[in-house]
Write a structure and sequence with these properties.
Blueprint (H helix, E strand, L loop, with lengths): L1 H9 L6 H13 L3 H13 L4 H9 L6 H11 L6 E3 L5 H4 L9 E2 L2 E3 L2 E3 L3 E7 L3 E3 L4 E9 L5 E2 L2 E11 L2 E5 L3 E5 L6 E6 L7 E10 L9 E10 L4 E12 L2 E10 L3 E11 L4 E11 L2 E9 L1 H7 L5 E11 L12 H9 L8 E4 L6 E2 L16 H14 L3
Length: 392
């Protein structure tokens, strides 16, 4: 299992270490109740079991195992792949974009930094560029005194692609100045070729004429290039109730068979976030249906009756360089297989997110079960934590 986990980390599996760090700081420094509630919400909404990392930290710190057990029980009242969703879960609601802040741009003169005059951001408008799409990155700079956006003077561009641990130079993107209406910015447009798969890094060197200096600033940003679509959402859906939970099935036209991860959000009729779901499934070629579970207790706890709207439907093919079944072999055998495996294809291929909303039937809250999630894994994990906490 350790090898399987490590490999999935390489392909972008989420880890809650940042949240855990915030949780520990909050617990030790007496953060206010609002901050504590935010950490709790993040923990409950996450797909990953928070007790795994917390238990390791508890062995080395003063985090009590009783607290780890309580947190796990709270998290595990819902299935691992069907979680509550709230307005604070920006990474799920705005899944297509990683918003970056404007950063102060200090000026270095005679080896010493001067007070910054501007703040800038190099913002990728999406974290992934898909087949037949053109990707845009914007450079925006704002005068810290006047608040006005100013046009940067581009001095140099470099775009590189990292694939299979090798860095490749890539032709620089097209540059377009947007000075007709605010916010003034410079855009960089990139359309990938079929060979342009991997992690992209854009480096921009620029000057700001308002500074009346020859100093050159530099910013970098990253996005992922996935120029071969493995499947396409057709926009067809059907739904059903099963054991007090809502299951929505989405149709895909699959070009490349393999292992897929599909995700979606469920929103209230007034666009209030309710739940999000993901599923890992093997798909053959042709027309396929994928089921997304929205657990009954989540809907009961949110106290929002239907109809609901399915939104943010997205997915990717998990194109592992080895057979996933090999990850269950003894560690030394797995290491040997990995050492002799070459990555000649993308380790993941993105599906163009479906732009639209699917509206469900009307539902009353009493149609959904308020029973907590139960499984062999949950019972075994609770028993393990009870033993560590020395509590029944």
């Amino acid at each position: 299992m350790k090898n399987r986990k490590n490999l999935y980390l390489l392909i972008g599996g989420a880890i809650a270490l940042t949240v855990l760090g915030v949780w520990l700081l909050a617990g030790r420094s007496g953060e206010n109740a609002a901050s504590q509630e935010e950490v709790r919400r993040k923990r409950i909404s996450g797909f990953d079991d928070p007790s795994l990392e917390l238990a390791e930290l508890a062995k080395k710190s003063d985090v009590p195992f009783v607290k780890v057990l309580m947190d796990f029980r709270e998290w595990a009242q819902y299935p691992p792949d069907s979680r509550p969703l709230s307005a604070g879960d920006v990474d799920q609601i705005r899944h297509e974009k990683i918003e970056l802040p404007l950063m102060p741009m200090p000026i270095i003169e005679d080896g010493k930094p001067k007070e910054p005059v501007h703040s800038c951001v190099l913002q990728a408008e999406a974290h992934t560029v898909y087949e037949d799409q053109t990707h845009e990155t914007q450079l925006r700079c704002q005068n810290l005194t006047t608040g006005k956006f100013v046009l940067a003077d581009i001095k140099a561009l470099k775009l590189t692609r990292t694939a299979a641990s090798t860095i490749f130079p890539t032709p620089p993107p097209d540059v377009v100045k947007n000075d007709a209406k605010p916010p003034i910015s410079v855009s960089f447009f990139f359309k990938p070729r079929q060979s342009d798969w991997g992690d992209m890094e854009l480096t921009v060197d620029f000057a700001l004429p308002e500074e009346k200096t020859s100093y050159i600033h530099q910013l970098k940003t990253h996005f992922f290039s996935s120029p071969q679509a493995p499947a396409k959402f057709t926009g067809k859906f059907h739904e059903r109730l099963e054991k007090g939970s809502l299951i929505i099935s989405a149709e895909l036209q699959v070009r490349l068979s393999g292992s897929y991860r599909i995700e979606a959000n469920l929103m209230g009729d007034d666009i209030e976030p309710v739940a999000h779901s993901r599923t890992d499934v093997k798909l053959g070629g042709g027309t396929q249906w994928v089921e997304l579970l929205f657990f009954g207790k989540i809907l009961r706890d949110r106290r929002l009756p239907g109809p609901y709207k399915l939104a943010g439907l997205r997915g990717q093919q998990m194109n592992l360089p080895i057979n996933p079944d090999d990850l269950n072999l003894p560690p030394d055998q797995v290491d040997k297989i990995l050492a002799g495996t070459q990555q000649v294809e993308p380790i993941k291929r993105g599906i163009l997110p479906w732009i639209g909303e699917y509206k469900t039937e009307n539902y009353q809250l009493n149609q959904f079960s308020d029973a907590e999630y139960d499984s062999d894994f949950k019972r075994e994990r609770i028993a393990e934590l009870q033993k560590l906490a020395n509590t029944p």
